[in-house]
TrEMBL record:
Gene3D superfamilies cross-referenced by the UniProt entry: P-loop containing nucleotide triphosphate hydrolases (3.40.50.300), RecF/RecN/SMC, N-terminal domain (1.20.1050.90)
NCBIfam families in UniProt: recf
Localization per Swiss-Prot or TrEMBL: Cytoplasm
Gene symbol of the encoding locus: recF
Domain of life where this protein originates: Bacteria
Organism for this UniProt entry: Anaerotalea alkaliphila
Domain RecF/RecN/SMC N-terminal: 3-347
Protein name: DNA replication and repair protein RecF
């Protein structure tokens, strides 16, 4: 798939803006704080209904305005299909989304329409950051290709919230403990499905990740990735029962996939804790690039790669490794200058200068 066109109205610092993209490499350059990342945010928002920068829709509406609109046109499977996503943000932290002019009622109806992989400098810290970021990595990737996973995850967190509220209530009224059982059953039912999907995801992704890491690092030492489950699926209800007294004391659920993690090892060393910055960054880059192949095989089409000022954070060797994958996938890159691309063996299709919320196409 590739993105054909993006239109913005009162989104972030854009009063009005239209930008068309070629199916290959597209570069957005300009000084910091001019609006380059805002374009990537708008694309990511249309694909996932979420921003990678904020949970508040009102922050994405241009100052002094009450509404914002984003229009995204996508070509899929070599141009045989075209989908249009229209997104409407309101200052009351509300949104409306239509796909091909039909309003959607559930987020599952949006997921899978557009597939994007966002790579920002923050992602280079994926290995060394906490488990929350690694769980988010799994959730984002699985939700984009599997709406059922997104549904199970959403339901799980709703049940988890209700169970935690009940646990805190039991602290003041112990007689309510009998009310936990139905919540436990629901939590385990959704949790088992989440765990199984993550297990399948990691087992499929690991060999791709290992091959990508080998090519980038040039090392003969195999890297490993493993899914660290907080609980085995068939033991879920029993573990919840065992932890009940502890959960009541803490007012929170201490068993379930909301506490899972991903392990990364190299040469017997836990990269999360003991890896050097170079090792951690190489592993993170390998992981993000392995997403491309995994998503592509899952949807039988190519996703769109969004690179938000990543090149400036990579050394020459890792830049070259990244460039190798760009000629086979639509890529939208933000940067402060175009010098890094002039000596690369890549073909740039379109280039835009972004300045104070204005988009200027440049001749190549």
């Amino acid at each position: 798939m590739h993105i054909q066109e993006l239109k913005l109205s009162d989104f972030r610092n854009y009063r009005e803006g239209t930008i068309s993209f070629g199916p290959g490499i597209n570069i957005l350059y300009g000084d910091n704080a001019q609006g380059k990342t805002n374009i990537l945010e708008a694309i990511y928002l249309c694909a996932t209904s979420k921003s990678h920068r904020t949970n508040l829709y009102k922050e994405m509406i241009r100052l002094g305005r009450d509404e914002a609109h984003v229009h995204l046109r996508i070509s899929k499977q070599g141009g045989r299909y075209v989908d249009v996503i229209d997104l409407h943000l309101k200052s009351g932290n509300k949104k409306g989304i239509a796909v091909n002019k039909k309003p959607i009622r559930k987020m599952q109806e949006l997921l899978g329409v557009a597939h994007v992989i966002l790579f920002s400098p923050e992602d280079l810290g994926l290995i060394k950051h906490g488990p929350k970021e690694r769980r988010r990595f799994m959730n984002v990737e699985l939700s984009q290709v599997d709406p059922v996973y997104y549904f199970n995850l959403s339901q799980y967190h709703k049940v988890l919230k209700q169970r935690n509220n009940l646990l805190r209530s039991i602290q003041f009224d112990p007689g309510k403990a009998d009310l936990l059982e139905p919540w436990d059953l629901q939590l385990a039912a959704y949790g088992r499905k989440i765990i199984q999907a993550r297990m399948d995801f990691v087992s499929t992704l690991e060999p791709i990740f290992q091959e990508m890491h080998k090519g980038i690092s040039g090392s003969g030492e195999a890297i490993t990735m493993a899914y660290e489950k907080n609980v085995e699926p068939d033991l879920f209800e029993g573990r919840l029962l065992q932890a009940r007294s502890k959960d009541v004391k803490t007012g929170s659920t201490t068993v379930g996939p909301h506490l899972d993690d991903l392990f990364f090892g190299l040469g017997g060393v836990d990269l999360r804790k003991y890896g050097s910055q170079g090792q951690q960054r190489t592993a993170a880059l390998s992981l993000k690039l392995s997403e491309i192949e995994w998503v592509g095989s899952s949807i039988e089409d190519t996703p769109v790669l969004l690179l938000d000022d990543v090149l400036s954070e990579l050394d020459r060797h890792r830049q070259l490794a990244l460039m190798k994958v760009l000629n086979n996938i639509q890529t939208i890159i933000t940067c402060t200058g175009v010098e890094d691309f002039m000596n690369q063996n890549i073909t740039i299709e379109k280039m835009y200068c972004i300045e104070k919320g204005q988009i200027y196409e440049k001749n190549l």
